[in-house]
Amino acid sequence: MLRLPPFRYLAPRTLSEATRLLAEEGPAAMPVAGGTDLLPNMKRRQFTPAALVGLRRLHELKGISGSPEVGVRIGAGETLTSVSTHPLIRTHYPALALAAAAVSTPQLRNAGTIGGNILLDTRCNYYNQTEFWRHSIGYCMKRDGSICLVAPGSPRCWAISSADTVPVLVVLQARVRLVSVRGEREIPIQELFRDDGMRPYTRETDEILSEIWLPPAPGWRSTYLKLRRRGSFDFPILGVAAALRREQDGRIGDVRIALGAVASHPVEAEEAMAHLRGQQPTPALLQEVAALAAKRARPLDNADLTITYRKQLTPVYVRRALDLLLGAEQGSGAK
Amino acid sequence: MRELITLRVNGERYEVAVLPHRTLLEVLREDLGLIGTKHGCELGECGACTVLLDGVPVLSCLTLPLEVQGAEITTIEGLEERGRLHPLQEAFAELGAAQCGYCTPGMLLSAAALLRQNPRPTREEIKQALAGNLCRCTGYTKIYEAIEAAARRLSAVHEDERQPDAALQP
Amino acid sequence: MDEWRRLQPRKAGPYRVVGQPLPKVDAYSTVTGRAVYADDIMLPRMLYGGLLRSPHPHARILSINTRKARELPGVLAIITGEDLPRKYGILPSSQDETALAIDKVRYVGDPVAAVAAVDPDTLEQALRLIEVEYEVLPALMSIDEALAHPDIKIHEEARTGNIHKAVSYEFGEVEAGFAAADYVREDWFYYEGNNHVPIETHACVARWEPDPHDPVGGKLTLWSSTQTPHYVHREVSKVLGIPPSHLRVIAPHVGGGFGGKSDPFSHEICACELARRTGRPVKITCTREEVFLIHRGRHPVKMWIKTGLKRDGTITAMHFRSFLDGGAYGSYGVATTYYTGALQPVTYALPAYKFEGMRLFTNKPPCGPKRGHGTPQPRFAVEVHLDKIAADLGLDPIELRKRNLVRPFSRTINGLRITSCALEECLEQVVARSGWREFQAARPAREAEAERRFSPVRYGMGLAVSTYICGAGKPIYWNDMPHSAVQIRLDRGGGVTVYCGATDIGQGSTSVLAYIVAEELGVEPERIHLETADTTLTPVDLGSYSSRVTFMAGNAAIQAARRLKELLHSAAAERLRVPPDRLESGDGCIYSVDDPQVALSFEQAVQLAEARYGALVSAGSYAPPEDIHGDFKGAGVGPSPAYSYSACVALVAVDSETGEVKVEKLWLAHDVGQAINPLLVAGQVEGSAYMGYGEALMEQQIFRKGRHKIPSILDYKIPTTLDTPEIETILVGQPDEEGPFGGKEAGQGPLLPVMPAIANAIYNAVGIRIDEVPITPDKVLRALKAARSEPGERPLPPPRVTPIALSEPWPARLIRWSPGHAGLAEQPLKLMNGHRQYQEQGESTPQGAATPPSRLPQKGGTA
Ligand SMILES: Cc1cc2nc3c(=O)[nH]c(=O)nc-3n(C[C@H](O)[C@H](O)[C@H](O)COP(=O)(O)OP(=O)(O)OC[C@H]3O[C@@H](n4cnc5c(N)ncnc54)[C@H](O)[C@@H]3O)c2cc1C
Ligand code: SF4
Ligand code: FES
Ligand code: FES
Q: From CA B53, how far away is CA A236, in angstroms rounded?
């Protein structure tokens, strides 16, 4: 039986108590929400925090409220199940509902939170392995070692941003609120991420992600497509989030495309978006846009299936996402 | 350091001293003797350890007992009531939905939560609800059939219970 | 050739229990969580045990220092290789394992030391404190590497390089066969290894009860999630030097096996030794990662096949070569090697057949038996190869197969006896039920519709047929003792207790015993109490492997039950004044067949019989008949008292833009003879189809830098509810003459045709061939891109199996054998051991009295 390493468990009742505990305990303490990412990682000894600060009881992290006109606030402690089934989100931010519902399994979505999903540790199949395995291969720089086992010459870690909701939140232009004893800040979600597999978030260790805010999205359609091997359990090996708004005359008023699981952070396909903006969509144009978006995908050999395959599927998935949004007769995939 | 906590499991209160790093799975099995909850990975990857937390399926291998004090925990031992089997249990037994039986407690709890929420699920809805429970023996077919049979039986019972009321209607 | 038909006197139908879809006898304990599995056993003062495993794929152990670990409070015992130096292994010919490595480790995960501690945290700390110094050696991680580097020896004992076993056979005149062919085709195939992934990880608890008066010092009990308590008993006793009489091995409920719990394991032996040393119970539960490391799963096999045919599709000769990647130890590998060649002639009537097989050692976890043991790989190769041939010759794949199917009641070119065989009916059934012909006819319309809708999805149907054994004809240790035995005890209150060593791993073998005994004694199965899989309480059954339990333990149970029945009937006859042969048992009574009103209750009959004969206990046993195989060396693998047959049609949807394959439906027809419980049979067929589906598309035990790449059930993919196709089961066939009530196996055979059926369906859908399992979407896409590349594009070449070029001749002496001419080797028919007794007692068969002396057809002789 794989077991957890010892730790102290702290159970604050309010957000301010939680931030105080985090500040007092220092970086050796970690917040735990649903625990569905952190606890397996701890069982594999990827993390051995001295203390866990439980976020479950914090009512400040709960609730989904707002309207399509003013925008919607989601407490970071809401479970993926409640996010994916909430009528407000299903109707007005369907991509988020799709992405949340595509995470892992029903049981994990019942416990896992959206906050935890956003702050999911980056993944790599040299790293998401037991202590025994990592010891066997000699560890890598993300934990206990000094080199990168995927790209041994590289000075950095290429672990993959693998959260399903993240590319969606990027295309929805979500903002997140971070709270600590030092104060609060609200930032566009893109600013939370860093292109660094080892330290993928700009969140300071004493900060708690308290809520996510989705701006109003009148006239926007959005979707999320996920590449994985099985119908459940599996992390994305490619996630494509797309949102667009059409003009009266059918031209693309605005479009946003973000890719997940192709780098250490969610990747926005700027060139592709610019190419499509203001245009009348045609199959040939969409093909070009998809190819441009795919240029941003540079997978390494640290996730399921081959690099070539993940790379080859990126334009296909981007095009299919756009087809879906444009309501075109599209070839639905076998899955 | 052990902490004294109170857990509500299958309607009973248990006071136990637990180490904070023991999971609910370990405490149920090793401290409370509720060995009906199984485990096949301890990493959230199989669903064998599924229990209900206030009626909602979660994985006991990734749940800290300290966090679920106050919640009602249901394990397989709590699915039968006073020796009377849940219709799902009957259907699983009669229709061959349990082969080695190791995934069965987790399957049954996921299925019970489904039927409570959705008394007449479609095959597709059943598949979705069980998408977090792996079975290596059955190929799942007999499990679906058993859940469908139990759903029919349960709704027949409900119909019966409604009969007297219905009779009062003009 | 009808002798066999009369071999088994069978109870006349209609049956009351047999053939009914009854719940399994343990169904209520499993659905309520009452069933106790090995890890559920918690004994007072129990210690937690664990193994320190090698971090290197190949290394010499220079030193082991356990001092720091020993000093840790709460650590009660530590053992290393020196403490248990005796070698063991499941096969007598491959005694190449030690419980803990002595001077060398041969794969990442090879156990080096074992610890018992008071709690799991102390255990973990102690394991970390053991210091092992290694000299790392170069590792061989594939068949090709193992062949290329005979200088790097994984086992000193291997005669040539890293070749563990090589065999070579020629049956009939192969060269002449090829010379007579109008068409010859050769292909290479590769089948990647995979793991059983039972949801229950291996676990065991050992308890030592000291007895100072006993020269052995005490007695040991081991509860283990094993499929083969008998062999675990044997090996633990050997390694620990404890006489078998002092050791008791019990298999509690087992949470799935599929072959993965068939070897004696290091953790079992170490738990026993740690318990003996500490005087306290010790539990060792493997983690999921450890299950991938101890493995014993499907061998990766590279295969070459060459077939010659007449223009009409009649096969004239086949030559088959297999190269098995055995991993670091022998396990069942010698048998697996033979199995890769043995059953080809049991599916198709081959007039000439050459088989060469070789198993290599590599620095990977040892491979062993998995559902279908050594036969899914060649089945994949043969069935895809034949599909290609059908396309080459413009023949219908169904007709091509039909032309060559093996015939019932025949002898194969390699000397195997075929009895009941409904293969053709299986084939016809799947074809009819799947709407194969209509599907193929509608192809142009379907394609046109897809084009019109710009759909990238293409549909295809593929088909394959297969064969499997109903129990190995030979035990692992060749001897004349029964393969299975059953005892039955009746008590005065009418209770029936059945004792049998057979191990239920979920397939329902215990239930089958109950049904059979209930049917014979005419009582309801719920009355029966079962004691199984306990080497002290129950008579030997060799174990749950090779699909042998229903057939063998079932026949033993019939014999034991009939012996009791005879006593009951003779006692009842006296009281009822009815001749014993006019009595029958049923519905809890013994009654006169002429006047069912003349009856006694079962209880009354038991009391009368006990008064007259004393305590009512009987035993029955079974060993397969002798004359079911040829008389050459190596003929012991392949023979079986009967064979099951299956056919499968797969319907797939292939996304030609992504290479993703969705299996929409599998139709599986299986010849199980008489289904003793159709519910359980369907369950076995569905489970096999599911597992075959996983093997075809996603499952693979793969390695990178000497390490298992994906040792978790998140990364090693097994199908979920959302992936698994719909499965339609079709049971066909007539009761087998030797099977218990006519039953044959269903636990493994139905897996076999699934992988090639899917591969053939993919070809049917998009016209590409992937000759390698699993068929992952990246391979499909690569093949598609290569096939439809536009001018100017430079796609990757399609995936292709690299052939093995042997510079040396095949490293095994060729054994040539042909079935002799009729009349050369005629012998009187030997009766099956299990039933000899009846014949001697002159029990009558439904057809009449004792079997007349008869002749075996075409008993072979060495050429
Ligand atoms: C088998 C399996 C499959 C999975 N599949 C997927 C998948 O397909 N897609 C996917 O996206 N995820 C997947 N996951 C990961 C995980 O279940 C989800 O990402 C989940 O949303 C994580 O949320 P949580 O609340 O459980 O996070 P936790 O584990 O509690 O936390 C994750 C991290 O975030 C930090 N954290 C959490 N909340 C806060 C907060 N409010 N403020 C500051 N820090 C915080 C924690 O300290 C920790 O570092 C899978 C997990 C498993 C075990
Ligand atoms: S990308 Fe390199 S450094 Fe990062 S986790 Fe993987 S192996 Fe380690
Ligand atoms: S034990 Fe596998 S999910 Fe909990
Ligand atoms: S019944 Fe064995 S794993 Fe489901």
A: 28
